[in-house]
Design a protein that fits this description.
Elements: E1 2-11, E2 14-24, E3 29-33, H1 40-48, E4 53-62, E5 65-66, H2 72-78, E6 80-83, E7 90-94, H3 95-109, H4 117-130, E8 141-142, H5 148-162, E9 166-170, H6 178-191, E10 197-201, E11 215-220, E12 223-228, H7 231-239, H8 242-249
Parallel strand pairs: 3-10, 3-11, 6-9, 9-10
Antiparallel strand pairs: 1-2, 1-4, 4-5, 7-8, 11-12
Helix pairs in contact: 5-6
């Protein structure tokens, strides 16, 4: 589904990604972990086309298509979704109107029928149960006045509405208490299917207890230094990242 080869990228002329190689197949869950400033969020933003980042080298194919030939909105319609670490507030745009427009644009791109307001009302009320969000949040402006946890619920609600082929979740666990993390983790698990893939970006392994990846990658200094199974997340919690950095410096890991 996603093939990344020797990806390099910079922001304001400063290199951030320095040669990323990663393959993600349909049905797989991958986790990217690493210290602050390692390039984890940058990788997600580059994949969805954030304009602040300049791709300086390498190749990314999404279902065989050159991802960098697609504008950000085309990437979204093709099935790439990103749940942001810090979702922005959009005063004056109701949450329900935003979600319906997003749904209908994707439906149009896929040749499916759009939903009118009444049809969408039935549709969204089923989806909102998945993230245990109160229905009053649909009538409020997008994320305006939402707590950190409410914004994260809204991100997963968007994911449930759009049903992307590839979902990138950037630090879903930040700002969530244990109960909210469990609810959203369970919701993400219910949305995962054999024809979809998931990339989780996180500092901490707690979220990976609910959303269990098959692959864990340690990213530091703009490079993936180590990849292994889900047991790596537990080892990182016990030992931190220094041992991975030491192994990489000694040439014993990739």
């Amino acid at each position: 589904m996603l093939s990344i080869k020797n990806l390099t990228a910079s922001i304001n002329g400063t290199p951030v990604l320095k040669g990323i190689d990663l393959e993600i197949k349909a049905g797989e869950i991958h986790a990217i972990m690493g210290p602050n400033g390692s390039g984890k969020s940058t990788l997600g933003k580059v994949l969805v086309g954030h304009p602040a980042y300049e791709v300086t080298g390498g190749e990314v194919l999404f279902e065989g298509r050159n991802l960098f030939e697609l504008e950000p909105d085309a990437r979204a319609r093709a099935g790439i979704f990103m749940g942001f670490q810090h979702p922005i507030e959009v005063p004056g745009v109701s949450n329900a109107a935003f979600l319906r427009l997003a749904y209908n644009k994707k439906a149009e791109a896929e040749g499916r029928d759009e939903l009118d307001p009444l049809e969408f009302d039935d549709f969204i009320h089923e989806k909102i149960k998945l993230v245990a969000m109160r229905e009053e949040f649909l009538d409020r402006s997008l994320n305006e006045g939402f707590s950190g946890g409410e914004k994260k619920r809204n991100e997963i609600l968007q994911m449930a509405v759009l049903e992307p082929k590839l979902a990138i979740l950037d630090e879903l666990d930040s700002g969530l208490d244990i109960d909210a993390l469990r609810v959203l983790g369970d919701a993400v698990n219910k949305l995962q299917r054999a024809d979809r893939a998931l990339l989780i970006i996180t500092h901490f392994p707690r979220i990976l207890e609910t959303i269990q990846p098959q692959f864990v990658h340690v990213l530091s200094g703009g490079r993936i230094l180590k990849s292994a199974g889900k047991e790596l997340a537990t080892e990182l919690e016990d030992r931190g990242y220094d041992w991975v950095l030491e192994e990489a410096a000694a040439g014993g890991a990739r």
